[in-house]
Amino acid sequence: MITEKEVIHIAGLARINLSEKEIEKMKNELSLILEYIKKLKELDLENVLPTTHCAELKNITREDISSKRDERVADSLKNLAPQKEQKYIKTKSVF
Amino acid sequence: MNFSDLSIKEIHNGLKSKKFSCRELTDFYLSKIEEWNPKINAYLWIFFDQARYLAQEIDELIAQEKEIHLLSGIPCAIKDNIAIRGQKASAGSKILKNYIAPYDAFVIEKLKSKNSVILGKTNLDEFAVGSSGEHSAYGPTKNPLDHKLVPGGSSSGSAAAVSQKMCVFSLGSDTGGSVRQPASFCGVVGLKPTYGAVSRHGLIAMASSLDQIGPIAKTVEDAEIVFEAIRGQDKMDSTSFEKKEEDFEKKLQAEKFKIGIVKEGMGEGIDNEVLASFKKTIENIRKEGVSLEEISLPHLHYGLACYYILMTAEVSSNLARYDGIKYGQSKKDAKNLLDIYFETRKEFFGPEVKRRIMLGTYCLSSGYYESYYLKAQRTRTKIVEDFKSAFKKVDLLLMPTSSTLPFRLGERIDNPLSMYLADLLTVPVNLSGLPAISIPFKDKKKFPIGIQLIAPAFGEKKIFEFGKFFEKICQSKTT
User: Fold this and answer.
1) Optimal mutation site among A6, A33, A85, A90, interface B, most CBs of chain B within 10 A
2) Distance between CA atoms of residues A25 and B19, nearest Å
3) Interface predicted TM-score of the whole assembly (ipTM), two decimals
4) Given B90, B156, B170, B178, which residue is catalytic?
5) B264, B270, B419, B442: which has the fewest Cβ within 10 Å?
6) What is the pLDDT of residue B479?
7) Residues of B with CB below 8 A from A13's CB?
8) B329 contacts on A by Cβ (under 8 Å)
9) pLDDT, tens digit (0-9, with 9 covering 90-100), for B371-403
């Protein structure tokens, strides 16, 4: 139901490298799951509004003033980066 | 002294009256962990020193006759996808192996403010995706009732730790049944609160429209005490919501409730052993004079298909943040930026996480969005409506928590679809944002099954009242 080409395309969108073996396995497993999911085709869903979530949402807003947060939190957040230089997170160049 | 079977209130009274010290209590639970964890693998990280230190501080407070909260000094365990400042939060994944949480989750702030003694962090399916605990990168947890069986998932360690008396209560998270199903498999109580009743701030996100933190405990009363301590609105979670106190305080009489028995929870896809025990519970409730009515939720069995589209879509989006740049393990020596992403995610995500990211990405991709994602959102509306019309007729709904008894370790690991089917009766509740509890029912020598009680949104009080009544019936019938 889902082809090898599609699996490779989706893995690209998901930013995951898959081995040959994984591609084959993924193809079979995803096909099985999608076959089950097809069940929804039995339903007549015309004119039914989609539900995105069930929260009784009320916006939580704060005053537009900067608040002082514990600097150590900011430091420990930065310290989690795999590569750093001074106070910056380091990555390979984009281009 | 053996503390294994004491309730939170009993421990609280014991501490206050100085019958035993918090240090003795904590040492007891730590020794249980030392004894059982090598066999069960419920805990990933254990805080021996911090727990003992806090216990001594609490003993000093008690010695000074200071007021203490019901949860003060109560030894507990936290699922490892909930942040505790300065401690590891691996979420059961290799990608977060060395991750140290920089802040406390809202629920942890709440527990710390009450001086609960956190003993450690518990094992889970990687990023909470799984129904058996076998998808943890740190090895599976075993079912304390039978070590050959899975404990359920994804809050496997949290349920097993309570069941094996390695803590008094624990916190888990429930996206499609991950608190209720392991509670059911391990013979303990698990509550999934109303979506928004407990802040998700500091919970490592899986599927944000479904995730909810909930307590696992030995009794309904204990679960209620923990829920009352962790709920509330939080400015860090815009979906958290506080209902006015009176909703929880209203006096309710459990035996006058009208209970709906879910018709679809008794038919296709439900194992015979589960059905037999479930029918027995209905009989027991009926004998107590409770008014019962059969209720149909016509779209219940579409819940799973709907869930596996919406949840995987949200997983694929939430887990996009693990790119090897900001935190977590990284293949930082890959040849360019894009390859860092591709190689990091290949190397450090487990198979089930990859599968769900792939499925979610597929459902959201161009050309498939309408036939999968949008269709699932429309189905979700039908499921929500089913519950709404049911609650016009009855106060609570009753059905089994899991369609199966705990299966054997390894039995379903190679067949993802059969693993997913274990969530058949729990996912519709998450899709509808409703509160539900799983309470164990043990029929003579049979394996316990979990009975699921579902209430309208913010109807936790109803669940607790009827739950306690139900527990009493079960006990009198089994002893």
Assistant:
1) A33
2) 59
3) 0.94
4) B178
5) B442
6) 42
7) 361, 365
8) 82
9) 999 999 999 999 999 999 999 999 999 999 999
